């Protein structure tokens, strides 16, 4: 993954509470970085998935989390967490994530998060709504290219 693969980044500065005894970011914090960046990604899209879930009773469940560590991230380091929607399925969204040094192409971590859209009453999957699908396709040029080739 390259920085140029993304159009959204969320900045962080590593706090002392996020490092471990080896003085690098403790592995579980990477998922927190990813989750926070995805939330900010949706905030920038101006799509209120939390409000939509309250209204409809339909929400996303995380079904897959993948983190690949390329290089250590250390205390007080500034990073950019990049997010893009990698794929839209019938009832799922897949997010591609990467952690770069602030403003650089230095790649520290890659990841993938997969959400499945689920009716909270029945716990059955439901299709991703057309409005959300369109917002994501408009944001991510590679999605429309993939659909055109399908």
Automatic annotation (TrEMBL):
GO molecular function, one term: fatty acyl-CoA hydrolase activity
Superkingdom, taxonomy of origin: Bacteria
UniProt keyword Hydrolase, yes or no: yes
Domain Thioesterase: start-end pairs: 24-102
One Pfam family cited in the UniProt record for this chain: 4HBT
Keywords of this entry: Hydrolase
Family: Belongs to the 4-hydroxybenzoyl-CoA thioesterase family.
Protein name as catalogued: 4-hydroxybenzoyl-CoA thioesterase
């Amino acid at each position: 993954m390259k920085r140029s693969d993304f159009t959204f980044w969320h900045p962080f500065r590593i706090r002392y509470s996020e490092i471990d005894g080896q003085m690098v970011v403790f592995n579980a914090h990477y998922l927190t970085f990813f989750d926070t960046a995805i939330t900010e990604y949706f905030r920038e899209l101006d799509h209120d998935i939390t409000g939509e879930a309250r209204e409809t009773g339909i929400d996303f469940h995380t079904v897959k989390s993948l983190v690949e560590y390329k290089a250590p991230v250390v205390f007080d380091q500034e990073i950019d967490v990049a997010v893009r929607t990698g794929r839209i399925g019938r009832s799922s969204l897949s997010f591609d994530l990467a952690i770069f040094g602030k403003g650089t192409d230095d790649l520290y971590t890659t990841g993938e998060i997969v959400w499945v859209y689920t009716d909270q009453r029945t716990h059955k999957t439901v299709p991703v709504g057309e409005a959300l699908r369109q917002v994501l396709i408009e944001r991510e040029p590679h999605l429309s290219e993939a659909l055109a080739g399908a």
